[in-house]
Amino acid sequence: MNSQRAYFINKLNEGFDPYATLNIPKNSSARNIKIAYTSLCLKHHPNKSGNRCANAFKNVNDAYAILTDSSLINYIKFTQSSSRAEANAGPSRRFAGNADSRPNSTNSQLDDAFWKRYWAVKDFLKKY
Description:
Blueprint: H1 3-13, H2 18-21, H3 30-44, H4 46-49, H5 54-67, H6 70-88, H7 105-126
Helix pairs in contact: 3-5, 6-7
C-alpha cells in the first residue's frame, strides 16, 4: 500500500467525511463532485484568499482525491456497511448470563466491536 493511500485511510478512520467537506450528497455523480470541487477550490485557494484558508483548501483537495479513487470509495462503503452491521448486531455474545455476571460488559462490547472492525479493515486492505 502506498503512503498516499495510507494517509487517506487514516484520515477517513479519524472521521473525515469527504462528502460533507464538498457539501454534496453521498449519491452524487462524478460531474457533481468535480463541480463542487472546482467551486470550493476557487473559493479557498491560498493565492486568492491568503493563507487563512490553506487548511480548508487542503481538505477540499483531499476530499476530491478520495472521491476520485475507486478503491477508497469502496473502502468508505465497506466501513459504513460494517458499522451498520455492528450497530444492528445487538449486545455482545462473548459472555453467557445476564449483564451483571459479565465482567466489564461495556468494555467487552467495545472490544468486540473494535476487533470486528479491525479484522474487517485488515481483510479489505489485503485485496489492494
